[in-house]
Amino acid sequence: MNARPKVCLVVGAGDATGGAVARRFAREGLHVVATRRRGDLSGLVADVEAAGGSVTAVHSDARDEEAVRALVAKAEQIGPIVACIFNVGGNVRFTLAETTAQVYRKVWEMCAFAGFLVGREVAGPMRERGQGTILFTGASASLRGNTGFAAFASGKHALRALAQSMARELGPKGVHVAHVIIDGLIDNPSTKALFPEMFEARMPDGVVRPDDIAEAYWQVHSQLRGAWTFEMDLRPYKEQW
């Protein structure tokens, strides 16, 4: 009888960072459950399978409690979740006057509330098994707010605080919780559209490549528990502090 595969759950498996993380963990033999709220996942599935990996693609809304419970249950049916990467975005740019209550609430739900739901649900089986890794994707806005980013910075600050609390509670139970700050422009279409002039001025080595982010995530997941990282920030060598 074949043993069930170990599972890596990637929530927010977009075309850049999330997809790169999914491909990297699949290369190590983990079965990837890749999910996003909407958008095409067929390209990611094809990439993983072409490289000899295994993947299950699911459309799911991480802001919906029942949907998250169903997602985690589905992944656990495939095999034990040993790694969960929360990579949901939410980066929008509005002045304070332009930031409606709806925008602010939605960004908070995407950045913080969804992180809570996903983290809580995967922590249950991980805690019972005494092992697992939960990685949260942060941003420059996790540490500092800026003009036009009141909603995004608020959500990312909340996500960082959540990760800190989870790390304190779950670390002694064998579950590694880490927060990774991407302190720079990520090489993807949405970032290029949001910061076109800055993006063009920094190419090619002044932006963070998704594959490099994915490699760092794998390294954190692979750490020995005697020296776990809680927080790591990633930036290209040209990025200013």
Strand percentage: 15-25%
The structure class reads alpha/beta
Number of strands: 7
| CATH architecture name | 3-Layer(aba) Sandwich
Helix content range: 40-55%
- Envelope shape: globular
CATH 4th-level superfamily = NAD(P)-binding Rossmann-like Domain
Name the poorly predicted regions: none
Biggest sheet: strands, sense, closure? Answer: 7 strands, parallel
Return the domain count.
1
The rounded distance between the terminal residues' Cα atoms is 53 Å
- State the order of secondary-structure elements, H for helix, E for strand: EHEHEHEHEHEHHHE
Widest sheet: strand ordering: 3-2-1-4-5-6-7
Radius of gyration: 17 Å
Compute the number of helices.
8
Q: Kindly report the CATH topology.
A: Rossmann fold
Text of the CATH class:
Alpha Beta
Mean pLDDT: 92
